[in-house]
Design brief:
eight-stranded mixed sheet; four-stranded antiparallel sheet; 16 strands; metal-binding; Sulfatase_CS; IDS
Length: about 550
Amino acid sequence: MKHNLSKLIAIVVGMSLVAGCQQQASKQDAEVKQTVEQTQPRNVLFISIDDLRPEIGAYGSPIAKTPNIDALASKGITFTRAYAQQAICGPSRASIMTGLRPDTLEVTHNYVKFRHKFRDVKTIPQHFMQNGYNASYVGKIFHHGDKDEENSWNFPQATHLMPEDMQSPPIYALESNNKLRDEYKKLMFAKYGEQAKYGLGRGPATEGADVPDYEYIDGYNAELGERTLAELVKAGKPFFFGFGMNKPHLPWIAPKKYWDMYDEEAVKATLAQTRQVAPKDGAAMGLHASFELRTFSDVPNTEAIPDELALQLKHSYLACVSYVDEQIGRIIQALKDQGVYDNTVIILWSDHGFHLGDMGIWGKASNYEIATRVPFIISTPETRAQGQALKTDALVELLDIYPTAAELANIPMPTHTEGTSLKPLLDNPNTKWKESALSQFPTPALREWGAFPLRPGMRETYFGELIVQVEQSIEQQFPHLWDKETFEQNVMGYSLRTDDYRLIAWMNSQDKSAEPFYVELYDHRVDPAESTNVATKQTQQVARLMQILRTRIN
């Protein structure tokens, strides 16, 4: 009996040792598997949205209907203070895609190619391609007219798989509006000649036809995106896939069902809460006359935007945001359907913010918070495994996307970029981070809507009256400094955002060592809307921040 008991104990102990070894082996196997997963190349879904300010649910909007972006944020990290390097499409996208600042690239308006100075600069998709990836895109990733097709992409869009009856749509779904656009364009060319080709003569600013999503460009691109993504997966290599939404860029057009998501009284309430006057003691050159919006046929050429039209514009913007959200949801679902979601990093960003009546203007193209701050969300296999939304208030820049994408995808880091990988913030959102975020914009009041200096012919259009008014305001503010050529061509506004302040220094771009023409300071501790310039009252803060700014721009 004693012998049998000893034998039984030995067996039990042996079984326990075996079970322990098995558990230890399983744990080691799991750790090895996790290590392999964290080091093998990962796919990247790179989602770009045009002109989207942080008016979405994930950023606290009480009105925007954005369930798909919000779901992405719920399993990722939301950067609450992310800033564009310049609040206009071309320079912002050039900076993001190359990892270089607008001044470094010498791309500060929409009418210059980003390779004009550095012909061999390596873009994000190029870097991925050189590390064994297929790179493809659908929609707007680079700025229109500078898509870098030959260098940055190696995998074709699946246009051959699109149904014959599903063609890339015209701007408007309603034929009457396409006809109106053509007629208005002819009228502008008849009146203003060559000047009209720079953007005058557009159709209505809004449309909400009762049509399927693919009757507008972003819905069509979602259809094309699903098919292209399937082909990328089928190719069997890791992929970098850019999915670029054109909306909510003007004109604000989306299917009727997205307009119907919003109650007009609720939209009106958001407008009523919008501060629609320029900052007290702000720079006269810092705000423009809503030039881009005024190129549309149903918007007043020079008069104030009527309340009824303002309501329609805000409503249409929100409809476009919800329309875009739906297309993004479709592409994320396509990742799941293709079985690659679990090994894909998703990066969502907007190229800049947008004034919707804020400070009295409609459009991007300023150095203020409302134009420079953007939604920026990253979702990775690790953040999704945590099962909870992460947020960080760290000051980050869109310039940081390039190195971040490389590190999260487990490929070598780029060596030429000026940004910083944000991976430490994904590991710990409270990590101490940058002291400031830097943005810039040249004299918004005296630039066309592509940030290009005013062409002589622009003064001969209906904008001439507005230009004269702006010039008179600037001359009145700077009677001893005013010079038309200097203020049109050589003034660059540099905007420094810190934890508590925004400093804007209007400087001579030909001599950055000179004293600024004007300085604005906004104290975000008490004035998050940037309603009052306190530079003359907080001179010590101005001196401190100017020292930081000079270090960053020289």
